[in-house]
Amino acid sequence: MSISLVAGLGNPGREYANTRHNLGWVVIDALAAKRGLAWKRVSQFEAEIARWDRPGGHTCYFAKPQTFMNGSGRAIGGLARFYKLAPEAITAVYDDLTIDLGLIKVTVTGSAGGHNGVASLLEHIGDGFVRYRLGTGPKDPPQMDLADFVLGKFTPEQQILVTQQLDRYVAGLELLLSCGPEVAMNQLNRRESK
Fold first, then answer.
1. Do 95 and 24 touch, CB atoms closer than 8 A?
2. CATH number of residue 110's parent domain
3. Where would you tag: which of 46, 80, 144, 156 has the fewest CB atoms within 10 A of its CB?
């Protein structure tokens, strides 16, 4: 089954721009810009949506929920019902602090792992969606409050790394959309040597 909806998870508002929790938005914004797609606010779905008519007649929608991270599933659930999409046709793109910064991991099942956006998706659409997980870890210092870490901005050094990796993040997402999760997992989940 091909992916028909890509949900970038993040928080709306200028104060959340460039925080670790908004890395999913950064990546789908970059892919949309690369493909010349325009975002449109659709209040019925509480989301900004861009439409990509791909070669071969397949349409893929990109969505940035405007519900704040903890309500992501509400927006994506509404879109899934409207377009009659099974969870397998949906990909969530989001930050994951259990993965080292700069690495990507693609998975298709599992728990929310403490990520409130993913917990909301599980609640509203169920399991089975593809997870495009962007490493933002490790949490440093380890005793730092989880919310303070994910809502914090990258350090200048980390921001340079994210900027350097952005093309790779986008290429990986395009690979997933073109070839499916199996191929993406085989190619992207190998740990790069530091």
1. yes
2. 3.40.50.1470
3. 156
Report d(CA 16, CA 13) in Å as an integer: 6
| Catalytic residue list contains 21 | yes
Q: What mean pLDDT is predicted for residues 55-64?
A: 93
Cis peptide before 156 (omega within 30 of 0): no
Amino acid at residue number 43: S
In a domain? residue 66: yes
Domain of 82 in residue numbering reads as 5-188
What does pTM read for this prediction? 0.96
Mean predicted confidence (pLDDT) in 30-39? 97
Instruction: Quick: pLDDT tens for 135-158.
Output: 999 998 999 999 999 999 999 999
At residue 30, what is the residue type? A
Of 21, 58, 115, 124, catalytic: 21
Residue 172 domain-assigned (yes or no): yes
